[in-house]
Each structure stands twice: as structure tokens, then as C-alpha cells.
Amino acid sequence: MAKINDNYLKLPGSYLFSTVAKKIAAYQEANPGREVIKMSIGDVTKPLAPAVIEAMHKAVDEMGTAEGFRGYGPEQGYGFLRSLIVEHDYKARGIDIEADEIFVSDGAKSDCGNIGDIFSTDNKVAVCDPVYPVYVDTNAMAGRAGEFIDEHWSNLYYMPCTEENGFTPELPKERVDMIYLCFPNTPTGVAATREQLKAWVEYAKENGSVILYDSAYEAFITDPEVPHSIYEIEGAKEVAIEFRSFSKTAGFTGTRCAYTVVPKALVVEGTALNALWNRRQCTKFNGVPYVIQKAAAAVYSQEGQKQTKETIAYYLENARIIKSSLAEAGLEVFGGDNAPYIWAKAPSGMKSWEFFDKLLEEAGVATTPGAGFGPSGEGYVRLTAFNTKENTQKAMEKIKAVLVSRD
Ligand code: PLP
């Protein structure tokens, strides 16, 4: 008889976003005509840049000609895109990464999940708490997480990110093999300093660990001191894989294009992970569509850079409005300076869901309860900067009215 992968049966239901959606729907039904402003949106809302659209149209037309038609492309991505990535995202920052270390893909989410394929299920995995749930769930699916008991997986090493440690994880007190780091962070919006990343690279070197570095929000970094890539740290190429995405950088959440860097210097048990990942991709992946890779390439054109940066600045201005308004309303707020996320502490020791309910019911503003990202997210809510500026301002006025009249 066929057997299933019963690790899937150990997964708890993913209630966070569906519960949020249900609560919003129930509120709207009970209060017809009352607007709900969604500061919970985890997706971009601005359209693709004109330079991107133009390149995409051109590529579509090419596909309709005998000379321009393309079938299967290289599994690792077209050379034109891989070399643009190398030039703009690495060489321009003084980082020596080669084109055959770049693997173009359909998303950082898939790559963060799929990367586990090339690692032993015996590895000890460290994750931040709160965390982007993909790292945890994909390791649970692979059988690396153990059992789910009292909101924790028995075999994972949790690194609490709390107000006390500035929402940056402390080095593990025991040896761990795989370490997921995400900066600027989902959900806290906090970025890591060069010194902090240095300590992680040193830890990984000393312990033979591999760092899985998710920098999907790199484009939101405004502080010149904050590294954009883990490879800005000396020696990182020997210990880290980096995930990047055009999703938040250039509005590709629906268009799908990302890339993963696996340096050739990263060798585990005598095997180069670059060769293993290449083998995995060639076997299980048939590449990102030509039209989409052309669109991604246009992000690096002069116009593309200007237009996508304007959109990022628009979202960052929303983040600034959220952060300053919530502070004016008396809340403790974190993140938002180098990320589109603001992590707000609920007042008077309120729990995440209680504060979520209050903001929804009294202000008509939807947030995401922090507890949904892990036990250490309890007592916080996450707000995103992806709504329009007008809605963001309106939502902040409503929250201020509720919180200020509270006292
Ligand atoms: N990594 C993090 C930390 C994210 O928050 C997200 C999206 O929300 C992703 C990756 C997904 O990226 P992509 O759209 O490239 O799959």
C-alpha cells in the first residue's frame, strides 16, 4: 500500500491569514458600510514599472516570431539576467560573485523551501522566533523539525527576537547546522548590522554551519551602514546561501522572478553546494519564462532603476507615516526604517489578538497579530506599508483617535 509523507500530518493548520480574513469579513458583515483599511497587506499594490512593462511587451512580440521564439531556457536562468545581477547587485558593491553562482527562479519562497533538498534530514536547524513560516514548515515537511508540541517543534532551535535583544537573534548556545536568517526582517522590519552579520559568519565557520540568508527586502535598506548582502562580510561565501527576489524590489509578486546565490566556495563534507543545487534545479525545475526574465532584466536599466526606486520610496514614506503616527499615539514601534514592516507593541500588556480586535472594531483598521509568526511575537501586531498613502494616513488618524481617547 502506498504511504504518504506523514510529516505533513504533523503540521498545524495555517490559521493566521485565514483567521485575519474571516475576522475582517465578520466585522464588515456586522458593520455594513463601515470601511476597513487593510494595513495587513503582505503584497505590493503599485503597478509594474513602465520600463518593465515595455520590456515584457517586446519579449512577447519576439516569442511570436520564428527568430525570436524560445522554448525551454537554461534551468539556471538566461545569461543576460545572471550577468546583470552580478554587475548591479554584487560587483557594484565590491562583491565578487560569478554568473554561474546565480540561479534564477520563480520565487524566494520556493527556493527557501526547496533548498532543504540538498541537506541531510539529520541537520539541526535554527530559526528566529517570530519568523517567516516557510522556513519552519518546509523543514517540518522534510522531517527535520520533529514533533509540534506546545507551539514549538521539538527538533528546531528557536532564536527569540525580542525587544531585549533588539529583535536580532543571539548566537545559538549549542551547535546548529543550518541557520535561517532574514534581514531586513519579516515580520519585525528590523535590519542587521555589519557587526551582527560578522558574528554569524564567524559562528558558521567555527561550527561548520550553513547560513540561509533571505534578503527579499534588501531594496528597502536606507541606512548606508546596513549590509545589502551577507557577502559583504568577509568569508561569507564559504558559509552562506543568499535568497533575493524581484517581488518586493520591483513589484513582481504576481510576475514571479527571484534568484538564489550558491557560491562555489561553499563546500560541505567535501561537496560544493553549487554543484548540488545545480543538479537539483536541472532535475526539478525548467526555468523562468523568457518574457519574465526580460522583464526582470529591465529592472536594471536606467529607467527601470529610477522607476522601481520611486515605488520603494513611496512605500518607505508610508512606513515613516505609520511609525511616527503610532509613536504619537503612545505605542512602542520597531522596524520600518529599512523595511516595509512596522512591528508595534500592544499597549497595557494586551495580547496580539486582543489588540488586533480592538484596532479592527474600534478603528476599522486591519493588522496582523504578531503571535501568528511565533510565540515571541505575542503582544505585537505587524503593519505593512503597502497600502496607498491616502489610506495609510487615514488609518493612522483612526488609530490615533482610538488610542488617544482610551486614556
Ligand atoms: N522571503 C520573505 C522573508 C518574505 O516575506 C517573502 C514574501 O512575503 C518571500 C520570501 C517571498 O518571496 P517571493 O515572492 O520571491 O516568493
Structural account:
This protein is α/β, with parallel strands linked by helices. Helices cover 38% and strands 15% of the residues. The strands form five sheets. Strands 2-10-9-8-7-3-6 form a seven-stranded mixed β-sheet, with helices on both faces. Strands 13-14-17-16 form a four-stranded antiparallel β-sheet. Helix 3 runs parallel beside helix 9. It is globular, with a radius of gyration of 22 Å. The chain starts with 15 loop residues before the first helix and ends with a helix. The model has no long low-confidence stretch (mean pLDDT 96). The site of pyridoxal-5'-phosphate has 13 residues, from helix 4. Residues 42, 107-109, 132, 182, 186, 214, 216, 245, 247, 253, 258 line the site of pyridoxal-5'-phosphate.
Mean pLDDT: 96
- SS content category: alpha/beta
Number of helices: 12
Number of strands: 17
Shape: globular
**Whole-Å distance between the termini?**
64 Å
Helical fraction equals 25-40%
| Radius of gyration, whole Å | 22 Å
Which residues form runs of ≥5 with pLDDT under 50?
Answer: none
Strand order, largest beta sheet:
2-10-9-8-7-3-6
Task: Write the element-wise H/E pattern from the N-terminal end onward.
Answer: HEHHEHEHEEEEHEEHEEEHHHEEHEEEH
What portion of residues belong to β-strands? 5-15%
What ions, cofactors and ligands are bound? pyridoxal-5'-phosphate
